[in-house]
Amino acid sequence: MPTMTMQQAQTLRGAIPNLDHTRGLEIAELDTIYVVRPEVQDKLEELTIQLELQYPCKILLTGHRGVGKSSALTYLSKQLQTSSKLWVVHFSILDDLDLNDLDYVDIMVLMVAKILEQCRDQGLDLGTAIQKRLDVWSSDIEIVRENKESSQIAVEAKTEVSVGTPGWLSSSVKAFLSVSGRIGKESETRKTIRQEVTPKYSELLGIIDDLQQAIYKTINRQLVCLIDGCDKASVEASEKLFYKNGHYLSIPECSIVYTFPVALQHSKEYNQILPYFTEAIPIPNFKTQSRKTPDPAEQQRLRNGIALLKEVITKRVNPNLLTQPALEKIVISSGGISRLAIKLTQMAALKALVAKTDKIEEHHVDAAVNEERKVYQRMLTVKQLDLLRKARDEQRIDPDSESGYLDLLHNLSLIEYDNGRVWYAVHPIAAPLL
Amino acid sequence: MTQTLEPIQSEDVERLELLISLSQHSVLVFCLYRSPEDIRNVQNLLKKRLNIPIEYQILNGKQLNPIRLVRDLPDQPRQVIFAVYEGNLDDELTTCAKYANIQRDALSLVEHPLVMWFREEAFTRFIRQAPDFWSWHSAVLEFQSPSPPNIREAVIELEAREPELSAVEREKIVAQIESYEELLRAYTNPTDEDLPYLGRAYGRFGVLLGQIGEYKKALEYSKKAVNIFRKLVLENPDAFLANLAGSLNNLGNRYGSLNKLEDALKVSQESTQIRRKQVESQPALYLADLARSLNNLGNRYSSLGKLEDALKVSEESVQIRRKLSEMQQDENLADLSSSLNNLSIRYSSFKRFEEALKVSEESTEIRRKLVEIQPDLYLAEFAGSLNNLGNRYSSLGKLEDALKASEEANKIYQKLAEIQPNAYLPDLAMLLNNLGIRYGTLKRFEDALKASEEANRIYQKLAEIQPNAYLPNLSGSLNNIGISYLSLGKLDDAQKALIESLIIIKPFFRACPTAYSQDITERIQTYFLLLQKLEQQPDPELLRGFEPILETLNIKI
To answer: Which of A74, A92, A430, B457 could cross-link with A413 by S-S, CB 3.0 to 4.6 Å?
Structure first.
């Protein structure tokens, strides 16, 4: 679906589409809309250096939902494209896989498909050796073999389109790409692929290794895969993926950055997951509240955090469309979660539009916050409210997955802050419910 | 009929319109509704404001994936999808939440706004199970029409008032009944989520009606409660089996009050059967309920003359309640006294009079203590125990003790029947009947006749309203009158009363011989004694139909 590049809105009506909090940023919007936070920029720059120097490495990119992991990944992708040493394949598993039923094999098969597609799209000549290797491997997968018949017919029908296709893109490989594209949609295909690939996972790893070598040989760059969406699965599915099968995600011979769910980062299993990966890089919330009475340095960090989150809003919406107290309240109420700040602004803008005013005022934000608080009120159980009280008083959590804290982190009623020392606070919108 | 939206809701329609028309991508909005009318109202208003068509889709067992509703549409033309959740609150809701939570990112790939409609309870459960999907919403708009009562809150509030109700405070019971009536009248369109509460309301309404003697209406509502819980059990047995067992137990009592003995037994058996199974898995939770069902089942067996069965389940009920009262004395003493009282009747049926007296005394003593603490709550039960105690003493020839107990019971029942005639006249009549017998055994025949005639007058009134329930009792009181006349030497009056007694009871004997054979045997013996004194021959027409009893008595006509 074609997407228009976002420009700063000059009217409240124009602000509504700009405040679509569900939409990820396009690379083209990074310069105009993305707010580069120094602490995130530093981490991503360090990561860029790490990816260039420590090959291959496996990175987990973590952080609260809505804090900007996908945007950070897009930013990283753009940064890496300027690298003379790295060749980036950036994709989201959400477009092709079924998160209801997710397996490490699905992700790796999809990764091979995405690498092959990008090679095809950029016309990379990977050479005859890889063609044979891919042919043998893909023909060895029965479902691909079956699919090859119909795929051949399709290719014949599209002969003209196929002109200029790289030589290594044989009918077997095309059939594989066709099948891999159906993993997410067809449970039978998924099942069959898993049945066939799982016992021969080492061969798949061999293919990845051969591909990265072929790419390196062709363009003299190392393969880096940025995989978005892995953080979107449920806590249980994530546990299966990273805890039970983390080893399989860590062994391919290329660098990979996976997004990783914040709830799992706080689980007791995390310590067993971490050794499989080179590093976990947290994308922190915007710092908008403090653990205790802030010292001058902390006050400065707070001011910076609030100013940056205000910038997230004012890059999308002309600051003249909000009063300063309204903007301040949005930022503080968001708890430092940028997606929520954007959403609250949209909710307040709609209230202002209905009230026939041309500016978002504080009471519009109050009404939006109250609405959001009502949803928290519905969502939180008595037991969860008790846990939140405990977390508020102790500013720490029990990482046992049975304790219930992980669900609170997952539903954003509890948020983590990191200013040298990790601490926890109840979300400002939920706090008055306690 | 289109309702007018409240001003605040009109603003929300405008917000919805702005959100849909100004957004370039898919928008997720949650809307809350109470009745389909609420959705239609919003849809009609929105249609006037939007240029985009609105497609109405249902989320239920056939289709539970809300994302698919927008994902599978062609990109153009842009459509608003109203996805109305109509699935259940359990597995279907979980599936729907799972789809939504996991596939939410697909919304960013489509342009069609998704407006999800939920009822309050379903929404709460949904967002708890789909926190990620929930975080994608742009607004939660409340369009519930305000008029109907919240049956859940109302039922919980009414139930909370019930422990304060005492059986003698008729006014309070009637007020409670009126509250239930008002609630049930206003509540015409139950949602699936409300059904358990509606079932509870019907059940309690039935019990309360039974307490004021409105047995027919009570039966109707007890049946409704059972029907609802039967339906709910099919969908979710774990959650509703206990309710079904309870409502069946109550229905058994309702049938019992109307003398529909076979029906009463059938549902009591079913209730007991369910509770037995529940006790197997969770004894701590269901043992008290099982004892209650067993106690009532004993009464049902007894009414049908199945005395062995009655004794067996009554003993089991006492055994359980004794154990429970040992663990938590205060809470279970009242129940134990009830089971003991019934067990004494069972023992007595087998002429195990010593045992019957022992448990009857225990029951009476417990209730005497309870009355001292809460007279209003336990007075009727105490009178019942005294009545039975009188019978037990009488069986052992302790006639003075028997009379004393019956007279004490009489005083209480007179008082209760004055306050609540519908509820306590039957008990008073029964007591007077027994009191007549007490006087008779002490050869105070005038007093006996007086008590029996008073009982007879009450039974006549009751039998006019509910012949099925009270004609057998009326027959019994006539028999006692006949005996009194016989003892007083007024043989013609005696004959008249005894013949009428046999005529009335005959159809009941034909319908259920085992339930009445013992009583009728005694009546026929009295009739032949009278004939002997009158030097008359029996009336073959009168005795036709009683052949099995005549055969037992070795009488040939």
So the answer is: A430
